[in-house]
Amino acid sequence: MAIAEDKDLNAFKDSQEEVVIDTTRKLRVAFIGCGWIAGSHVKSFMKQPDVEIVAGADLVPGKAKAFFEKYGVEGVKTDYKDHKELLDDESLNLDAVTICTYNRQHAEPAIYALKKGVHVLLEKPFTVTLDEAIAVMKAEKESGKILSIGFQPRLDENMKMIKKIVDSGVLGQIYYIQTGGGRRRGIPTPFGTTFITDETAGIGALGDIGCYSLDMVLNAIGYPKPLTVSGYKSNFFGTDPNYSNYVKIGHPEYAKAFQVDDFAAAFVRLEGGIILDFRIAWAMNMDTPGDTIILGTKGGLRIPSTECWNGTVGGAMKLYHEVCGEQTETVIPIIEDKSGMGLFEKKVRSFCDAIKNGGTAPVPSSQILYNQAIIDGIAKSAELGREIEVVIPEI
Ligand SMILES: NC(=O)c1ccc[n+]([C@@H]2O[C@H](COP(=O)([O-])OP(=O)(O)OC[C@H]3O[C@@H](n4cnc5c(N)ncnc54)[C@H](O)[C@@H]3O)[C@@H](O)[C@H]2O)c1
After folding, report:
1. What domains appear along the chain, each with residue ranges and CATH number?
2. Residue 83: CB within 6 Å of ligand 1?
3. What is the pTM of this model?
4. What is the mean pLDDT of the chain?
């Protein structure tokens, strides 16, 4: 009897937490880049009752038109050759753009959009270089518009739990973090070479999935500033025409197109005396380069890696601590998401809410700047073959 009552109470509580969206004011949204990930964006924007998708541009002629037809979005203007033409079209009266272009085309469209006074949801990684991130943030500051970076794993309840654990103080003073992840054979080439050429991607596994590993722990500990980086990167798998996945998909020539990293590792010193030990792989002869661990003076947290690294929590976390002088482990089971919303939907909804309610960016550039500074530092240090100091200019 008592259990039934509790269930009723929970059902009542859930219904009370339903969010009411003001549909009287529709946000006019455009897409820049209509490739693979834009598909997840369009499905999520279409679910928002207060959003009107009004335009889309892609560098490939006809791609934007075909994209919106595929997803059944009607009345979308697509006769633009690039982001500039779209953003110059004042008849669109845009509120926001979602930028789903490859990495090398993150900074320029974001700056152009912000200068036009349009809110920006920008896919991850923030940019390719630290200098680009600084330039985007200058435009953001001048515009006063919202710029949110597309780190949807952060909106997962289990990821939020990591932050809650750190904030609770149960780990004590944190001094060492090991993070990263990897795939055994996972160079992303399902739709061509935009992830692997320098002209389009600029960075490989380091930026693509490394940014998630960094965000998982840096967000939890409050994004301390990186001070020094000693980095390494390699490309043994991507440049090999016999790489088994190229052979399987019948594209050994991708080996010649491959100009980025497929593995990276680093030793990073963070403000507050914290050491960050990082490794990431699109391909390696190993199942995982290890779980994420956070060591503190009072407790340690183990966060299992996902098998195919996607930046989220791969299983029940374990807290190692002492109770009354005895070594104890507390298991933190995976939290089921009861919201009925996928992570992309949450990313899009939180962006729209920030615009409508005058709030701050759900994933602010001021945090991801440090993520980018580490990625940039690893790339530079790896090229120089020595440790470097991380210098972040004023914005
Ligand atoms: N958040 C996630 O889970 C997630 C997943 C996959 C990819 N991504 C990120 O999304 C971005 C895009 O990845 P993708 O897989 O969709 O790539 P993609 O190559 O499939 O699509 C990118 C599209 O952008 C277009 N484009 C490039 N510059 C443009 C410009 N200036 N104006 C208009 N169109 C332009 C290209 O022609 C291409 O069609 C990457 O930065 C990637 O890291 C994020």
Report:
1. 13-152+343-360 (3.40.50.720), 153-338+371-384 (3.30.360.10)
2. yes
3. 0.94
4. 94
